[in-house]
Amino acid sequence: MKKYIIKKVIRLILLLLPVFLFGCNSSKICEVKKPVSNTGAEYDVAVYVWPAFQPSADWKKYDLFKKGIGEWEFVKEAEKKRPWHKQPLEPLWGYEPEDNPVVIARKIDACLAAGVNVMIYDWYWYDHAPFLEGGLQAFIKAPNSYRMKFAIMWANHNIDDLWDKTVRYKCKDPNGYRNIRAKARVSLDEFKNVLVPRWIEFFKKPNYYKINGKPVFQIFNASTPVDYFGSKEATTEAFKYFEQKVIEAGFAGLELQGNGSYLRYSKEKFDTIGYDGAFYYNWLSLEPFSGSYYLDYSNRPDMDYKEWGEKAYKNFDGYVKKFSQYQFYPNVTCGWDTNPRFPADVYTPVALNNTPERFEYFLRKAKDWADKNIAPNKPKLILINALNEWTEGAYIEPDTENGYGFLNAISNVFRPTAK
Length: 419
Fold this sequence. Notes:
Helix content is 36%, strand content 15%. By secondary structure, the protein is α/β, with parallel strands linked by helices. It starts with a helix and ends in a 5-residue tail after the last helix.
């Protein structure tokens, strides 16, 4: 009983922390007299947002998350599979629906206070309709959203068994992805006449993130549009059309960024699309010690978080030198543990000892890399995975173990007065 009371008292203190640090609380939105355009420094610090923690009719459509709370279901039901395993995770702010503008408003305030000034939303399109767009719409409707820049990453990967924890293996087998529930493929006609106009409407928002007057648009599966449209020529024409429509909408052009993972085995397709820059969603693309890429996890060991990060950066530097024609942007991934997405008897390797202090070390490493390697005409953009990838163990939102530790680490490095 005593431990329970102490835990509740600590949680109450942490919940009230924004009142003293940021001048607001969970039930009230901070009033800001002037828009905040950036962090007050020369860095743009962006966090990825996985919009799965919301009730949605989309879940039933694809037979997922039957309890009506989105992927919070897996977070709540996660099991401790090893003595050292830190599961289940408990969000300090509770299991809140992220399609609620008030919920998003608190996240915006906390991120801005820490020095984050861009949110990049994973954006999906299946069966001729948007998927999980409610999270992004909630951001746009949040009363303080004008203070935070945003962008979208076209997460053009299929829906398969990755999002069903009752399935043991979720990756490629000799016959391709197992049990595809929805395909991300779109036709050239749909791309031009449906998706491009929809994206441009987002670009028109005054707080959409731009580089040199060009809206930033990222693509996760960076090479697959070539497969969608049937030929290199059709793909090149499609993206020229996209940029022309962006220019006609009043912008200087399109800042197109592709997932650098695809450079190592489909550079020709990468070149065909005409990317301006390359990004990585997380370190797993640079050092795949774990994740949903192997059928048998039994002989794959955990990896120390710092070792993982150092290996990822070494590989990152290799890709930068090999594909120097592209502007790369550094990524800092704050953790890794996909076990909530797997059955109780399947253990997937995790990144051990991912403390806020170690996260801060890599933030400083990314900052230093940006200082030395990003071109003078480009922003020093730092990408963080992620705001809320709870079922991948990569989140900066406060939890009951670390409190605001990961947000504070960002603040230590990137807030205007940080050194």
